[in-house]
From TrEMBL:
Gene3D superfamilies: Apoptosis, Tumor Necrosis Factor Receptor Associated Protein 2, Chain A (2.60.210.10)
Name of this chain's protein: E3 ubiquitin-protein ligase SIN-like
SMART domains to which the protein is assigned, alphabetical: MATH
Domain MATH stretches: 6-140, 162-282
Origin species: Trema orientale (Charcoal tree)
Top-level taxon of origin: Eukaryota
Lineage, opening ranks: Eukaryota, Viridiplantae, Streptophyta, Embryophyta, Tracheophyta
Coiled-coil positions: none
InterPro entries named in the record: MATH/TRAF_dom, TRAF-like
């Protein structure tokens, strides 16, 4: 039960008894919702074509199908409503799993052949039929394929003009700040950072947006290397992860890249002529392609229409 009235159509029937005694069904006027034309089909004593008895039946019918293109099809999710006039609430009826229904040339109506039992519908305590008057409603949401989609590929090697970044840091012994940054790619903390303060050389990698201009988030596997130009025993670390430029702290962490003891040990030759050389290789990078297709049929936003029809018998 809900208090909000149906968004797209209301059908009020004054004189239900007369209708049930004189007609097998009543088909509403045409109304528009979600860019299509529709009708409600109400069977006051059940759908006789389906041998339904002791129930009321209610269907949503697509109308004016001759105006639709050849091989047309409309996928929808819809709800039907029965108004409780005592509680001022609407009983909502839809498939339990919210199944999508497809309207096409051979199937132009969907609904519920056993919407409510006549016993429940006519029970005065339920409020569905008051003073021989009842109200039904409908909401429909058309599911359209917009043709918009996206593909992401992990490429090895990545499609980059220069997948290797090289940074020569001269006068390394004179570095006195906590951190240094080069071209918004690498942040170097020569004496460590946070828990690795005065313990390790800390390095943080954040690829430039120039390398991945079409996507706010992308995947990168990078390898960081501090060169030993004498022995060739370079210190290397590799890590992969998703980078999101909408998040300020999105970068690869090498807080404990190497101990300060190993860094400054003369036999390792990581610092030669007071110069440290750092390289970053982008080994794998993601490539994202976004495709857009212009819709051929204009859409109408949900809850745009609010129609009401009254059927009266004097």
């Amino acid at each position: 039960m809900r208090q909000l009235p149906p968004a797209h159509y209301l059908l009020k029937i004054d004189g239900y008894s007369f209708l049930s005694n004189t007609a097998e069904k009543y088909v509403s006027d045409v109304f528009e919702a979600e860019g299509y034309k529709w009708r409600l089909s109400f069977h006051p004593n059940g759908d006789k074509k389906k041998n339904v008895e002791n129930y009321i039946s209610l269907y949503l019918v697509i109308a004016e199908v001759d105006t639709l293109p050849p091989c047309w099809g409309v996928n929808v999710n819809f709800k039907l409503f029965v108004y409780d006039q005592i509680k001022d609430r609407y009983l909502t009826v839809q498939d339990a799993d919210g199944a999508v229904k497809r309207f096409y040339a051979m199937k132009t109506e969907w609904g519920f052949e056993k919407l409510l039992s006549l016993e429940s519908f006519k029970d005065p305590a339920n409020g569905y039929l008051v003073n021989d008057s009842c109200v039904f409603g409908m909401e429909v949401f058309v599911i359209r394929n917009t043709g918009n989609w996206e593909s992401v590929s992990l490429l090895n090697p990545p499609l980059m003009t220069n997948p290797t970044f090289r940074w020569e840091i001269r006068e390394f012994s004179k570095l006195d700040r906590e951190s240094y940054q080069s071209q918004a790619v690498v942040t170097l903390c020569p004496k460590g950072f946070h828990s690795q303060k005065n313990k390790s050389l800390s390095i943080y990698v954040r690829p430039s947006t120039n390398a991945f201009p079409n996507k706010a988030a992308f995947y990168v596997v990078s390898r960081v290397r501090v060169l030993d130009e004498v022995n060739g025993k370079h210190a290397e670390r590799a890590v992969g992860g998703w980078y999101d430029f909408t998040t300020a702290n999105s970068f690869a962490h090498y807080a404990d890249f190497m101990s300060l003891e190993d860094l400054h040990k003369s036999s390792n030759a990581y610092i030669l002529r007071d110069t440290l050389i750092l390289e970053v290789d982008i080994l794998i990078g993601s490539q994202t392609k976004v495709f857009h297709k212009k819709q051929s049929k204009p859409t109408c936003p949900l809850f745009q229409f609010d129609h009401k029809k009254v059927l009266s018998h004097q």
